[in-house]
Amino acid sequence: MFKEELTKAAAEYGISLNDMQMEQYNRYFELLVEWNEKINLTAITEPKEVAIKHMIDSITAYDENLFKDGTTVIDVGTGAGFPGLPLKIFCPEIKLTLMDSLNKRIKFLQTVVEELGLKDVECVHARAEEGARNKKYRESFDIAVSRAVARLPILSEYCLPFVKKGGHFIALKGMQYNDEAEEAAKAIKVMGGSKTEIRPVKLPELDDKRAVITITKTMPTPKTYPRKAGTPTKNPIV
């Protein structure tokens, strides 16, 4: 059932998935539903909705010019693994770090990684504000991705500190994406970002507006950022 829905959604979006990818997405779906009964991972569990709103939606972040063999990617506030894990299955050549503040979710993610046999994936239990101050992760990634974590001014402070100079921050955003991009202009600049590209996307069978926002990092993030946990949310840079 899920495989059929995903095959259909992928075809409508204009991508093709091989048998191994199909098996991995299907097992991911099974584990998501199974673990969701124990810990709250997602409100979306119906096969068609998971196929479109989780798997294909995550893949919209993919850009063949950015995701190459050995590209280092961090998914900040990954939750149940979106968009990082669907991107890894779609583009196995990337080296992925999944970061989340809840240890229960990290255990779920580690289970998925093991069951799917995914290589070059690290699951990290940390808040974004703390993780970005760790020398191992600060300004060490080609790409940071994030979906549905916070509004863009806040998200820029969470994610851009992880991105190396010349790298990119990719945010998956809903219908208010234009407003958020304008609102985030100052925060993006302060964090060392410059060029912002907005690519509207259309998901199969959905009429809602959404977009992928790609921000290029051209300067290092000042050492004072990100601010301590909770501050970006309470006092965003706008």
TrEMBL record:
Belongs to the methyltransferase superfamily. RNA methyltransferase RsmG family. Gene3D superfamilies: Vaccinia Virus protein VP39 (3.40.50.150). S-adenosyl-L-methionine binds at residues 77, 82, 128-129, 147. GO terms for cellular component: cytosol. Keywords: Cytoplasm, Methyltransferase, rRNA processing, S-adenosyl-L-methionine, Transferase. It comes from Selenomonas ruminantium. It is found in: Cytoplasm. Pfam families: GidB. This is Ribosomal RNA small subunit methyltransferase G. Its EC number is 2.1.1.-.
